[in-house]
Amino acid sequence: MTFLRRPPVWAALLLSAGLFTVAVLGLGLARAAFYDSPDQPAADRIVVAEPPGPVEQGVCGTVPVQAPRELRGMWLTTVYNIDWPSKPGLPEAQVKSEYLRWLDLAVAQRHNAIFVHVRPSGDAFWKSEFAPWSNWLTGKFDDTDPGWDPMQFMVDEAHQRNLEFHAWFNPYRGTQPAPSGTGTDLSKLVKDHPLLAHPEWRIAYPTGKTGRLYFDPGVPEARKFVEDAMLEAVEKYDVDGVHFDDFFYPYPEKGEDFPDDASYKKYGNGKSKADWRRDNVNTLVREMQQRIAELKPWVKYGISPFGIWRNGGEGSDTSGLESYSAIYADTRKWVREGWLDYIVPQLYWTIGFDKADYAKTLPWWTETVKGTGVQLWIGMADYRVGEKGDWSDPGQLDRQMAMNDKFGVQGQVHFSAKQLRQNRLGSVSRYVSKHYAGPALLPRMARLPATPPAAPQITGAQRAASGAVTLTTAAPGGGASWALYRTGESAATLVATGRAGTAVVDPKPPAGAATYCLSGLDRSGNEGPLSSPFTSAG
């Protein structure tokens, strides 16, 4: 799978020998729409995932409290400046302004998370000891310091809006093809680039103008280096999640194999090359889970893989490219071993598509995560809306999300931000009005530390000229965020959420008196007890 310079992201479906591949046109998330039998997870890792909302949490006065629980996010792609920044080398003020507009869009569409591409290809959107500054930010390949801290700004502003910040990394890509990237031209790399300092880590693939440099996944020292490079960001910044897409070994190029014979000869230990490559990817996935847990155990860890593990048999009822054999990503094993907190398969096909029917791939994934404690979120193909055929129907994503609800999926991530703003055929407005009509709490991550805060207290209320009601609160409270409920005839429903320390506001209260309850939540989505009911004046 290769990046080209412009969206739409996927190129054509190439049908050959019963397989198809989906090429990515321009994204940063490496959207791909294209057997070692995995051991069962240890008993202490088996956790029943909490179903999607509405979930009842106590009572407010005499009525039950209900809130939907669902991850809602979008991928913000930086590679080739697909989403952000709009151009390389922009002034700091413009870069910041553009980012805030993306956050405003997320808030307007009632998302609760954003996934930002901070290491697209061996570079960094923070001052790193392991990687040069990203040229998609600075407009240069010489490690020019922009003079400010983009990562701190991004995380802080997301948190101010109560959006989780998931730092999205490509582990092994070292460069992007020329001319926008440096390609395989070593003379264009900064003098202290790790792939110059360690040529034994370096692989160029494929040949020709689309070539790029990779860190060799088969070299243990290279793997440790890329882990350290990513964990540096986790250590330095208050990120909520570590996120990969499906770029480990590259997607196959016709007539070429990834040239890793040297590392295979040195480290293969008698395994077939395919099994050895899968083991290399498995090791990275497992070690990152272990190291994140040691460093910051509350940080979530997830991967967004190609939507097909294997075809037929124990795999899905599909006939497409397999992540297991084509890119050596044993995605089912990662889930069964409990190496992830969440998985976001890229199900970038329509309901009824013959090679990979959404209605058949989705149930396979829901069955795969069952009983593992790994949450299932779905990668949604907003970028495909408007294509010929079934994608010309503006209701396709709406129907897919209804199917997600039916099968107990705990969230969606949309590719990508630009398409959410474009709202092709009105498709985004349609699913937002039906599925994201009100706020949602994040799904409770039972695998991670639980520190639910004590009940807060509501001490007063003031109505603004706009009609919004601002509530004043007192200790104990605490936690990472708050949830505000307003009572109705039969239930108290969620009307607003916010980061701890921000004003508690009901943006659209009724004209008369209203009764509220407030709760706090920890970073893993565990909700503490509700406050006593408080009734505001009419």
From TrEMBL:
Residues 70-387 form the Glycosyl hydrolase-like domain. Gene3D superfamilies: Glycosidases. Keywords: Hydrolase, Signal. InterPro entries: Divisome_Glycosyl_Hydrolase (IPR052177), GH (IPR017853), GHL10 (IPR003790). It holds the Pfam family GHL10. It comes from the Bacteria. One of its GO terms (molecular function) is hydrolase activity. The keyword Plastid does not apply. This is Glycosyl hydrolase. It comes from Actinoplanes couchii.
